[in-house]
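Aim 2 progress update. The chain analyzed this quarter is reproduced below.
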Amino acid sequence: MFLAFKRPETLWEYAIAIWTQGPFCHCALVFGDSLAARAGASLPFVTATPKDGVCMGTAHYTSKIWTLVQIAVPRLANDPGAMAAAQAECLRAAELDVRTGYRYDWLGILGFVLPWGEHEDADRFCSEECVRVLQSIGILKRYKAWTMSPNSLYRVLKQYLKAPGTSVPLPGEKVSTR
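Predicted structure tokens:
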């Protein structure tokens, strides 16, 4: 299971990336292994888009516009069966959100852009959906999902993955063997 962070291609996406102070404009929680994704496999994902609201589908993540961050759950690191169960739980949570029919959270996006933006519980944007699904297995529980942009989620994950007990490198980082 990993998060895929998208670099901007359109003017709207560049505006989101600039406003949220980072290189990313969108994210998706992908079910599968980032090595399989880099090898060209089409993998299932959950996200939220303006057109579809919360949605699931399959996609390839080999393009240079995607940065992939493998999700490591320290308490499950040495138990592949438990990690597979955690991924299955996330998949169930995502499927429930799709069936619930959450729309895209335009007011939440305005919260990143305008100081008076509001949060709507019945709607979701991409990073909010990713955080909520991860919270279903106990990851990022202390964060309010609706306050997370793709860039703030990336920054939080970067710190989370560097926490004691994790050994998963982030893209572009070298693994220390000491």
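Helices lie at 11-19, 34-38, 80-100, 106-113, 126-135, 150-161. Confidence is low (pLDDT under 50) at residues 164-178. These observations will guide the mutagenesis experiments scheduled for the next reporting period.
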